[in-house]
Design a protein that fits this description.
About 40% of the residues lie in helices and about 20% in strands. It is of the alpha/beta class. The chain has a seven-stranded mixed β-sheet with strand order 5-4-3-6-7-9-8, with helices on both faces. Strands 1-2 form a two-stranded antiparallel sheet. The protein is elongated and about 65 Å long.
């Protein structure tokens, strides 16, 4: 194979796919094509019809392939992740938004179908801002507050609000969710850490090695955050407000028990697209 052959689009993708497969990356050819698009801005349709095209800057492509093979998440390589209808910027300071978390937005729309019915939203542990910004995108009269204990994370959420033309309706505060909040809200959303501490090493390597541990660690049984957040909800919710929280697989009974002990009603337990109970809807 000549050097020219080595830098042809099809050859680059094939070698990348083989390397990723050997590294244990699922759907290796698909991932190789995504990395090619990230490097060169060429979509799959172009790749399929220009396999013999000679490509420049092959070292940049090779670097992306090496990093992905080592387990670095695609979202951190690209710096972008779609969530709901939003395009978000993500960094290693924030948990990567996942489709499962869209279950909370779906539940909110189901229980508040009138898009004029929500005036205020609180997001506890906002991270990238994905939940708060998705809610604001659906309720045009609402103003939202996102709370996160890390300044760099809050800065990223502010940037995402601006990227999605929502900065005028969102404020991001650096605080802990146990700190006082002197306001009440129509809707409270939260995707807190819920992985039991001892289970974290067993997660996928790209999660353990690259995503922020503080956004994963839910304490010994995974429920530490719920014991802090849920008892505060009666003082944070408007009289007819809703709180919607995400939790881990099999945690629904424990979270519901904490809610009932705090004087809250369980309105719904919500499955994700895989049928796994993923979120709880609470009211006063």
């Amino acid at each position: 194979m000549t050097p020219a052959d080595d830098s042809r689009a099809g050859a680059l993708i094939s070698r990348a796919a083989a390397y990723l497969a050997e590294s244990g990356i699922d759907q290796a050819r698909r991932e190789a094509r995504l990395l090619f698009e990230l490097t060169y801005g060429r979509e799959v349709s172009w790749q399929l019809t220009h396999a013999d095209e000679i490509m420049p800057d092959t070292e940049l492509f090779a670097d992306f392939v090496r990093r992905r093979g080592a387990g670095e998440p695609m979202a951190y390589l690209s710096g972008r992740k779609g969530f709901w209808t939003l395009d978000l910027e993500v960094t290693p300071d924030t948990l990567i938004p996942r489709g499962d978390t869209e279950t909370l937005v779906e539940a909110l729309l189901r229980h508040r179908p009138d898009r004029q019915s929500v005036a205020s939203v609180l997001d506890l542990g906002t991270g990238s801002g994905c939940l708060l910004l998705a809610a604001l995108s659906e309720y045009p009269q609402a103003f939202g507050v996102g709370i996160d204990r890390a300044e760099r994370t809050a800065q990223q959420a502010r940037k995402n609000a601006a990227l999605n033309d929502l900065a005028s309706r969102a404020d991001f505060v650096v605080a802990d969710w146990s700190d006082p909040v002197n306001a009440r809200f129509d809707v409270i959303l939260s995707n807190p850490p819920y992985i039991p501490k001892d289970d974290i090493p067993d997660l996928m390597k790209d999660v353990v090695a690259y995503e922020p541990g503080a956004a994963l660690d839910g304490g010994d049984d995974g429920l530490d955050a719920y014991r802090q957040i849920i008892p505060r909800l009666p003082d944070l919710l408007e009289p007819h407000g809703l709180a919607i929280l995400e939790f881990g697989i099999g945690q629904e009974k424990d979270v519901a028990d904490i809610a009932r002990q705090s004087g809250l009603s369980v309105v719904e337990l919500c499955p994700d697209l895989a049928g796994i109970i993923r979120a709880i809807v609470l009211s006063l």
